[in-house]
Every structure is written in C-alpha cells, then in structure tokens.
Amino acid sequence: MGILQDIVYHLGLGFSVALTPTNILFAAIGVTLGTIIGALPGIGSVTGVAVLLPLTFGMDPTTAIIMLAGIYYGVMYGGTISSVLINTPGDAATVISAIEGYPLAKAGRAGPTFALVALGSFVGGTFGVLMLSIAAPFLAKTALRLGPPEYFSLMILAMAALAGLAGSSPIKGIIMGGLGIVLSTVGVDIGHGVLRFTYGNVYMMNGIDFLPVAIGMFGMGEVLVQMQRLVTFELLKTKITFRSLLPTIQDWIRVRWAIVRGTLIGFVIGVLPGAGATIASFLSYATESKLSKHREEFGKGAIEGIVGPESANNAASAGAMVPMMTLGVPGSGTTAVLLGAFMMFGLQPGPLLFQNHPEFAWGVIASMYVGNMMLVVLNTIFIPTFVSILKVPQTILMPGILVLTIVGAYSLNNNMAEVWIMIIFGILGYFFKRYKWPMAPLILGLVLGPLAEVNFVRSLSMSQGDFGIFVARPISLALLAGGLVSIFYPLIKQILLRGREKLA
Amino acid sequence: MNLKKGLVLAFVVLLLLGALAGCGGQEAAQEPEKAEEAKGEEEAKEPESKWPEKTIEFVVPWKAGGGSDTMARSITKAIKEGNISPVPVVVVNKPGGNGQIGEAYVINKKGDPYTWMTLSSGQISIPLAGLGDIKATDFTALAQMAGDTLFLVVPADSKFNTLEDVVKAAKANPEGLKIGGSGSGTEDHIVTYLFEKAAGIKFNYIAFSGGSEVMSNLMGGHVDLAWANPNECLSQVEGGLVEVLGVTTEERLDSTPDIPTFRELGYDVVFWQVRGVHGPPGMPKEAVEGSIEILRKVSESDTWKEKYLEAKMLTPRFIPGDDYTKVIKDNEDMFREALGSMGLLKE
User: Fold this and answer.
1) Other CB atoms within 10 A of residue A238 CB
2) CB–CB contact B241 A327 (8 Å)
3) Domain B53-147+273-342, architecture per CATH
C-alpha cells in the first residue's frame, strides 16, 4: 500500500509540474520538432537533441529536459513517416519499418498503417513510461546483470530469429547477412584497437555506418527502380476518402498481439544499457515474422510487421530512460546527450536524482505521458496530409526523394563520405531489388555483427579464452537456447503437425 | 486540380523543411565561408590590420554532444556572455576517422590565424597507436583549458576497500583481476599499465566502447575494477553504488578531499588528461598571442568556471603557450614509452 501511495503521490507531484502552461507548451514544441526531425532522413534523435540543446540554455531545467525528451520520443513516431511513404528510413530505429510499410503504402494502405502505428506507438510509449514510474530502480539493477556474454548471446538470438527473413531463398538471405557482417568489420576494432580494411582511408576508420547504407539501398534504390518502371502508386488512382484512411476491424484484430509483444520486447530491450531501440525493433519484427498467421505476406506488406516494431521502438525509448535516470548510465546515443544536458543544468542523474530533485524527475516522467498523448493526436490528424504526399506526381516526387536522401546522408556527419556510401549502396540496392536479393539481412548483419563481435571478444578476454563462459551463465545459456529453438522452429512445427496428422 | 496543387505545395514545403534541417547542422559550417569573403574585401582595403578582424572557426574533430564538443561550446558561450572576443567564434563539428578528418582539415589551414581546434588526450595517443598520421605536436599549442583525471572505482559490494587490497589480490592472482576501461591503447589502457608497473602487478584489461558502458559493467559485477573520469561516476559514488579507491593526481582534489591519491599510498601513478585548444601549424605570432588572451579571459570567467568546470568536475588548469607545448610534448613522450612497453606502439 505504501508503495502505491508513494507512486500516486509522486505522479501527482509530477503532473503538477508537467501541466503548467509553459511545460505543456514546450512538451508540444518538443514532440512536434521530434516528429519533423524523425521524418527527415538522416537526422536522427542524437543529432536532433545535440543540435537543439544549446537553445535550452537559460531555460528552466525541467522545461528544457521536458522539451528535449519530447524530441527524443517524438522522433520514434516521426521516423515512420518517411519509412512508409518514400521507403527512406527517417531514423535508425525505423529502418525495419520500411520493409513492410512501403509495400503497404504502394497498395494504398498508408492511412490505416499510420493510424495503427500511432496507436501501437502510444501503447508502447505509455506502457514504457508507466513501468518507468513504478519499477525503474529495480529494472535498472536487473538489467546490469547482463554483461558481455549475455549481449553476445542476445545478438546470436536476434540473428537466428532473423535468419528466417530471407523470404523465398534462404541461401540468398544468408549470403546477404554474411556480406553485412563482413562490411561491419571495416574500421577500428574496439577490442584491440587495430585498423581493418581501411586501405589507408581516414573516412573508412569509423567503419560503415548502417544508416547511409539503409538510406541508399531502400530510398535511392527504390528511386532508381521507379525511374525505370515509372509504376504509379495504387493510391494515385483511388480517391482519398476518409474511410480509406481508417483501419478496418480486421486490421485492429490482426495487430493487437503485435502491439502487446512489441511493447514488451521493446521495453525490456530498451532498459538494457547495451542494446536500444533499433535492436528492439529488429527483434519485434523477427518475432512477428515467426508468430504471424500471415507469414506469407512478410516482405510484401504485412501490417503486423510494422506495427510491432513501431510499438517496440517507442517502448524502448521510454525504457532507455530507466538506466539513465536511476543509475546515470545512458543506454543509447540520445540518452547520453540527454545525460550531458542534465549535468549542464547541474542535475546529477543517478540514484539520488529522485531524492534530491523529485519535482524535476517526476515532472519529466509525467510530461512523457502528456507528450505521448499529444503525439498520438498529432500523428492521427495529420494522416491525410502525410498520405497526400503519395499523390504528388512521380516525376516530382522521385527527384525530391533523391535530394532528401543526399541531404540526409550528408547531415549524418557533415561529410561527403556518407553521401558516397549512400550512393554506392543506392546503386547496389537497385540491382539487389532487380535480381531479388533480400536487403534486410545485409542491414541486420551490419548492425548486429559488430555488437556480437565486440561482446564475443570481451567475453573471451574476461574468461581468458574459455568458451564455457557463454553456457555457464544462465541468462546467456537461455538466450542461446532461444536462438536454437528459433532456427529449428519451422522444423519443430512440421514435426508437431505431422504427429498430429498421424494421430488424426 | 485544386487538390493536386495543394499536394504539390505540401510536398514542396516538406522538401524545404528538409533543406532547412540539413542546413541546421551546417549553419555553423557556412558562416566561416561568408567571413572568408568578407576578409577578402577587407584585405583589399587595409593591408596591415590588427588581429582579430574576422570570425574564428573553432573545429571540433568529434561529434556534437561529446566531451570536446561540450568544451568548445562552453568556450563560445563564455565568450558571448562576457563579450570577450571582438569577433565571433563559431563551432564546427568535423567528426570521423578518430578525429583525423577534423585534424587533417586544420593541418591544411597551415598559417591561418582564424582557426582553432579542440584537443583531448586521445588525440595524442591515437597516432601513436597507429590509428592516424597526424600528431598532437603538429599543431600550434594555444592553451590547456582544463585537466581531467581518472578514479579507480569498484562496486559498493566489492571485497576491495583500499588500493592495498587490490594490489595484494592482484599479486596472488596475476592477470586474474578484470579491470575495465574505454578502448584499447587509450588513456585508460595506459594508466592501467602505469599502475601495473608501479605496483609490480598484472591485470586483465577489458576494453569497452565508452565510459557509460564501463560503469554499467562495473556495477553489474562483470569487471572487478574500472577507470572513470570524476563526472562519469560521481552520481553513482554519491548514490552509494560504487566506491573510489584512488585518484591519479599529485595531490588530492579540492572537490573530493576524502579520496586518496595513488602517490600517497605508495604507487607512483600520476596521470592528467588534457583538454586544450590548438591552432593550425605556423599560426602567426599575433594570432597566437591574441587567441591566448581570449582563452585566458574565458578561463577566468564565471560562466566557464561554474557552467563547465564545476558541472563537469574538471580541474581548473590554464596553461598557455610554450608551457602548454611542453605539456603536450611530455604527454606524447610518456604515452610513447607506455605504449612501447605494452607492445601497442605503431607509429
């Protein structure tokens, strides 16, 4: 009873701070900016928060952090828009959304997709904040128990679960995944500080970032394909009616479990200091592709394949606030910048934050409930506007997308190197698409490969070369077992089905 | 038709927004160019003029939001608030290639009086570890602005309560204690070596990608000990999650008088991380002197002391000109010796 009263009391305090007119206004500014930043390819939440941080100097610390946090989770909503409409991921955590979202848009279902994504994001974000309010310290401490061996096993689980994504040809999928892992080895190796495959080029030293690769393959690749075929979108022919923008009852039913699963996966992964929203969205996608009743639709526009990951990345962005606020350990690039902002205002995130500055800590948390509410409204009322972009004639839209992809790639580091990477992968993307080589595994290899490698090396240096470390630790063992089950899931399912048939 | 027009308009607006956002990041990058034009005009009018007369471009060879970026932006903030410089100082991030991309940019501005660059200790060790060709000593040293130090930290429930406990356990079990730090061949790695040498012990050094990862692995018990900058671990220390066994300064820090130094406990480990400002090679004398004057005023301003040094738990250390050149040189020699002994020197 004491605990519950505590929470109610603290949330009451929080809302009394969050609901002042100034704070409501700045939460609204934050989430709106976040949505715009998210929708623009290239500029993600890290850059967005870092660039806008100086604007908050001189503001009241609570108001400033409310705005900056609003940008952070606003990006998770906004990133979907460009992924779905122009096949160009707006933010790292929404890369996976392009895979199902774009085919859905082509089929004239962008409206319902946005509505369901907004709902899923709201559920994910709100659940995340709820958990942040009631169980943050406990969750953060539990998350710390995962060390390098567990992260390695988690990456193996993710790769195994995603191996099924290859679609029609598993061999092609494995080759592309391997290619992604090979590309990810370019640059400085963190374990030993050795340069690999840079050929003396300084631009290669930080490795190949997956974002320009994704922008190139999905965004620019699609433009090249469209240029050749000049296929018109279905939506161009159909009239936009209010009804066509709304999801059907079947849609609601179809995605409800995807939202629940995505929310849970997203929050858990978000709390881990070594994972984050991007990994969370991948894992949710893998889960949906395994558990969906419409597995054959994956890659061609399965709505649960976008609603799940979008719920996950919003839940993860709330989850990432848990270790940052309670332990002072940021779990992602954006929370690291936010942590810097806290300190600039003289607030030490960590165990004492809730004790020393309760109005601040709870004010920010309460504002996240408010912000999520605003986002779901914002993202619903503007659906017709978003969708109408598809009505722009191809001859104008395609060059426009091309410009966006180039500006986006450049803005990652203010550097031409990323633009060249984007263009090279754009051209490759065209051929991949033409000859039906799946691109998702390449991206996954590029993201998961380095995390798997670095944690593998760390684990072995911890155990002084003993491979037993991966199975001797229970959490790691469980994750590896999950990976095995996931690989053999189709086989197991078949055996079970056959057994049942025989019985019948 | 009307609908179509509206849609085209909506799309154009979106594009414009995109262009604007793209420029947001580069805003800083463009101003110096404008200034360059302005300079051209002025030079024509008045050949012998006094420094400074145009915008100073302050290059940060790392990403926005990081430690060097924060320092640069705090300097420009102090300049703006105190009205310290007659010309604007504009921060430009040129990240990538372990700082080498931004450094190459500054090297190419040889003799330019209007370029500054941030330098942190990592930029001294990176070329020595074979990760780049540009050395810290290639630049004109203007001033050290602050010093950062390292704490040796353990989890609160650790069996080690003093450095003595650590040394004893390490002697009993060579390479058995896991010590976490950021990166390989970096300051954390080098200070591990200094401690090993001073105490005649050997650790198992585990390299992580950054300070926060080090702290979460320490608190999770995945390493026994770890190195952390004061501002990386202070909130955890105050919250009772970790304890500090020693600090690598000559004398105890004013801000943490209870934490003993390695030296007073009998281990000669002294290590300062440098944070400073440099100019391109061959920077003209009047520009060097003028820049040092501006930076000195920054270091004396309240904004700088309160909003930067105190907030980041850094030690005030203003060392200008030739003395700073010597600091960099000494650091480089010390790093070279350490990396050589560690087998990591790849100059």
Assistant:
1) 10
2) yes
3) 3-Layer(aba) Sandwich (3.40)
